[in-house]
Design a protein that fits this description.
316 residues, alpha/beta, Purple Acid Phosphatase, chain A, domain 2, five-stranded mixed β-sheet, four-stranded mixed β-sheet, 16% strand
Length: 316
């Protein structure tokens, strides 16, 4: 069997969050067919999942099993999302859940200690932090070469995976002194899986979509033209962002080759289109009632990224 990276094309699928019905609908729409307990494309195309398979939806364990079967059959690739990362941290006792944390919905389906729980967590540990496709990169939230280099030097394997000892090392680095190896490892993972953030100047705050007061904004990490915090922010649906001038330099990165991410809960009723000439997001809020989106990437024609290459389901 040929390597999945030699496929004629890649169908890069956004955050599923346990909505198996949307995944099956999308795979069928893309031309994938049931095959020996998995799904495969008759032309040899490969499905690529950006992570966040779990939390929130009604069929989380079976979503993980479906994607895993495709990966193990050579019909798909999958990278780590921040929700899989959080699940690993929770399993290792490195993360405490609030009452409102969506991970409770996963634990209700797969209680700690159950076979389903161990199967899912074991597989999450095998997922790469990012994927290098021919001429493109898939990463859950942010393309950041410095973070990739930091992890490559600290503990990521050639296939961009991490072992559980490194997770413990990195997570303990959250509160470690600045610029220590563990602190740098934590911030590298945090950037790639959750995106870049900047602090708002006091006393500015905003209310996120879950009703929580925030003092830091996720930013449009590829956009060096923003002049205000509101225009720099990537916080879809938030209306009270402070429209005040930037008071600090903001590091941005416009990648030269295509980068495909998920993570950002783009408005479900908006028409999918590239965020920049080399950046596409495939998360259109399937976890909150939106459609599941896919970008069809063809290595023979990697650029320009085009709106017509998106395929989506109907909202449930």
């Amino acid at each position: 069997m040929c390597s999945p990276l030699q496929a004629p094309g890649f169908d890069i699928i956004g955050d599923i969050h346990g909505h198996l019905e949307l995944l099956i609908q999308l795979l069928a729409k893309l031309g994938y067919q049931p095959s020996a307990g998995s799904w495969r494309h008759p032309e040899g195309r490969i499905a690529v999942f950006v992570g966040d398979l779990i939390d929130r939806g009604p069929s989380q364990v079976e979503t993980v099993r479906t994607v895993r079967r495709m990966v193990e059959a050579g019909h798909a690739l999958c990278c780590l999302g921040n929700h899989e990362f959080n699940a690993i941290c929770c399993a290792l006792g490195l993360r405490t859940l609030s009452d409102s944390d969506p991970h409770h919905t996963f634990l209700k389906e797969a209680p700690k200690g159950s076979a389903s729980y161990h199967d899912c967590l074991y597989w999450f540990l095998t997922l790469p932090v990012w994927l290098d496709l021919p001429g493109a990169t898939v990463v859950h939230a942010c393309y950041d070469q410095a973070s990739m280099q930091q992890l490559t030097g600290a503990g990521v394997t050639q296939s961009h995976t991490l072992d559980k000892d490194f997770y413990a090392f990195a997570i303990h680095g959250k509160n470690a002194p600045p610029d220590t190896p563990e602190n740098l490892a934590y911030h590298a993972l945090d950037t790639l899986l959750k995106g870049r953030e900047v602090q708002l100047p006091p006393p500015n705050t905003f209310t996120d979509n879950d009703g929580r007061k925030r003092t830091r904004i996720r930013i449009r990490w590829w956009d060096n033209r923003a002049k205000t915090y509101a225009s720099l922010a990537l916080q879809p649906g938030v209306r009270d962002l402070p429209n005040v001038p930037l008071t600090c330099p903001v590091e941005t990165c416009r990648p030269k080759q295509p980068v495909i991410v998920g993570h950002y809960w783009l408005p479900p009723k908006s028409k999918p289109k590239p965020l920049a000439s080399t950046v596409v997001c495939v998360d259109y809020s399937a976890g909150h009632g939106g459609p599941l989106a896919c970008y069809r990437y063809n290595p023979e024609n990697p650029k320009p990224l085009l709106a017509k290459n998106f395929v989506t389901t109907q909202s449930p």
